[in-house]
Write a structure and sequence with these properties.
Blueprint: H1 7-11, E1 21-23, E2 28-35, E3 38-50, E4 56-66, H2 71-86, H3 91-119, H4 123-133, H5 139-157, H6 167-179, H7 183-201, H8 204-207, H9 240-259, H10 272-284, H11 288-292, E5 299-300, E6 305-308, E7 324-327, H12 330-343, H13 365-372, H14 403-416, H15 421-427, H16 435-440, H17 446-464, H18 472-475
Antiparallel strand pairs: 1-2, 2-3, 3-4, 5-6, 6-7
Helix pairs in contact: 5-6, 6-7, 10-12, 10-14, 15-17
């Protein structure tokens, strides 16, 4: 084909023309191809280029493909290329530069849009991200946190852009909680908000918005609630006489129920598995969540070990946990053996009675059972909960005690047994020493920790004489609820 190409000529091409070249004016020509959709013609513009030595060379630039591109559009590209050649510019390089410029423009537009969207992120968006990416997924603790935030924090703060939230916004919200008579809730929300904004400051897309820094650091807790209401670190330790008193109280209540003629009217003692949990807490110094969520796959009674995996361990202030090993004394093994007999083929040490075999009990289940039996220490006016055993049967001494206090009691007993703090702290699963020392000092103190737990177990055996709740009478009462 010679002269100026027309659309009619191109439409007249047949499959047998494949590979042939068709020419247009101004150095434009195309090669016929057969595709799945029919005939296509790839159009090229030919022009001369010169290398560094001045030698001429023929070069080609793609101007489009008919019929995807019309002849008019293809010729327009050709004309731009001819003008570039006339200006001493390689049109291929210009085409690439134009493409890169367009891509950069699009990237800048996308970045600008991303910045605009980021600037519109609200405290509600931040809370949702923090909850999803940072907060532990433990059903009990997460559900309680969500309930408190939905009730007290989000209605006042969710709509405020992160870039605009101020210390006074948080303070006034928490003041409203404290002034309605819930200072403890205000304190917990304060700590949660502080941790949320610490996490946000570690996220680049939120850090840019926190121009004035963490708003929770702009005021102290004492400006929200009275100092007398600020929770102090618990110091409760059960003394050896109190431990003996606890043993005797549990044994008496269990025996009383066992000999009662009408068990429907008799006062039900603490469930045997919960009694066992008390002594496991003391002998292993474990956290409540680690025990309630414990799985048999991590416990080796033959080797005397219990691996607490990261998901059952408390994270450090950076949200990290590596888990740790607890070495079981003969005292602790005896109770785990009894618990195995109760849990049967469940993978959990404390399977849920509601969904047996499907999951463990709640993380606060043991604590609730114990504190419910110390009703005198509950807030004035607290109502008796339906289907809960609430009395003063487990009041020991003049102060309320929690399962976590048994962890502190075990540590104190290790101190009395002259076990070094660097060992007993590791028995608790605590991180010991400065980061630089941990980086270079990689010794794990396994032998020392094993000996420390064994020494604590021997002391408990000596203190109690007979291991509490493991008598033949108690074993017959495994159905005690």
């Amino acid at each position: 084909m010679a002269g100026k190409l027309t659309e009619t000529q191109l439409r007249a091409l047949k499959p047998e023309n494949e590979g042939e070249w068709v020419k247009d004016e101004g150095g434009l020509q195309g090669q016929v191809r057969v595709t799945r959709k029919g005939i296509a013609v790839s159009m090229y513009y030919g022009f001369n280029v010169y290398d560094e030595s001045g030698k001429r060379k023929r070069a080609w630039m793609v101007c489009g493909t008919w019929p995807g591109d019309s002849l008019k559009e293809i010729r327009a590209v050709r004309d731009q290329a001819r003008q570039a050649v006339s200006d001493g510019i390689d049109p291929r390089a210009k085409k690439l530069a134009d493409k890169l410029t367009q891509q950069q423009s699009i990237a800048e537009q996308l970045a600008s849009e991303a910045s605009r969207i980021a600037a519109q992120r609200t405290v509600g968006d931040l809370y949702a991200d923090w909850l999803e990416k940072k907060v532990a997924r433990s059903a009990d603790s997460r559900a309680e946190l969500e309930r408190m935030w939905k009730k007290d924090m989000l209605p006042a703060l969710a709509h405020i852009p992160v870039a605009d939230v101020k210390a006074n916004d948080l303070r006034n919200t928490l003041l409203a909680v404290a002034e309605r008579g819930a200072p403890r809730v205000a304190e917990m929300l304060y700590e949660q908000a502080r941790h949320m904004f610490i996490w946000a400051d570690d996220q680049p897309h939120y850090r840019r918005l926190l121009i004035d820094g963490n708003p929770a650091k702009g005021f102290g807790l004492a400006s929200v609630i009275e100092r007398s209401h600020i929770k102090r670190s618990r110091e409760r330790v059960l003394t050896p006489p109190e431990l003996l008193a606890l043993r005797d109280v549990l044994a008496a209540q269990t025996a009383e129920f066992a000999t009662a003629r009408d068990k429907r009217k008799a006062r039900r003692p603490l469930a045997l598995k919960t009694q066992y949990a008390i002594w496991v807490h003391l002998a292993t110094m474990c956290r409540a969540e680690a025990l309630t969520q414990a799985e048999w796959q991590y416990i080796d009674l033959n080797q005397g070990t219990w691996w607490v995996p990261p998901e059952h361990d408390k994270s450090d202030n950076q949200g990290r946990s590596t888990g740790y090993m607890i070495y079981l004394s003969a005292f602790a093994i005896a109770y785990f053996t009894a618990l195995k007999a109760i849990s049967g083929d469940s993978p959990y040490v404390f399977p849920s009675g509601i969904a047996r075999g499907k999951g463990p009990i709640g993380t606060t289940a043991i604590t609730v059972q114990i504190t419910d039996r110390q009703r005198k220490f509950k807030a004035a006016g607290a109502k008796t909960k339906i289907n809960r055993h609430m009395d003063d049967s487990l009041v020991i001494g003049t102060e309320k005690w929690h399962p976590h206090d048994l962890r502190r009691t075990g540590k104190t007993l290790m101190q009395q047994l002259e076990i070094p703090d660097e060992v007993s702290e590791r028995c608790l699963g605590h991180t010991v020493g400065r980061k630089i020392n941990r980086t270079y000092g990689r010794y794990t103190f396994d032998k020392e920790r094993q000996a420390a737990f064994a020494k604590l177990g021997d002391y408990l055996d000596q203190l109690f004489g007979e291991r509490p709740a493991l008598s033949a009478l108690s074993v017959q009462l495994e159905d005690v609820a």
